[in-house]
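Exercise 7b. Backbone tokens:
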């Protein structure tokens, strides 16, 4: 699910990028902060209650917990919640990507 999510997101990013340099904007300013706040280096149970609730909205947290559950058998979130969150995000990005392909948005003939 994670690889599908990143591949579709990369495809959408590439469609909107005007130059090769524009492709690096999303990984630098969106993906990196989400990774640091996604529970990669710490358990979200160490955060105050408010920030735990905010972290649940971070898709990277769901990916990390799915991997953590697959490797170690433990997770900060309910694994079903993580898989449903990833599935919904993949479905939304897939619909957006298909819409961009059908409309020919920024594609050359």
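Sequence design result:
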């Amino acid at each position: 699910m994670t690889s599908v999510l990143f591949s579709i997101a990369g495809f959408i990013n590439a469609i909107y990028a005007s130059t090769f340099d524009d492709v690096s904007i999303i990984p630098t300013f969106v993906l990196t902060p989400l990774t640091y706040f996604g529970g990669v280096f710490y358990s979200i149970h160490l955060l105050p209650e408010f920030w735990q609730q905010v972290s649940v909205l971070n898709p990277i947290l769901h990916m990390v917990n799915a991997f953590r559950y697959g490797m170690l058998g433990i997770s900060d979130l309910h694994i079903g919640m993580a898989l449903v969150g990833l599935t919904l995000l993949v479905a939304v990005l897939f619909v957006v990507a298909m819409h961009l392909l059908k409309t020919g948005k920024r594609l050359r003939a």
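Instructor comment: The chain has a mean pLDDT of 90. The chain has five helices and no strands.
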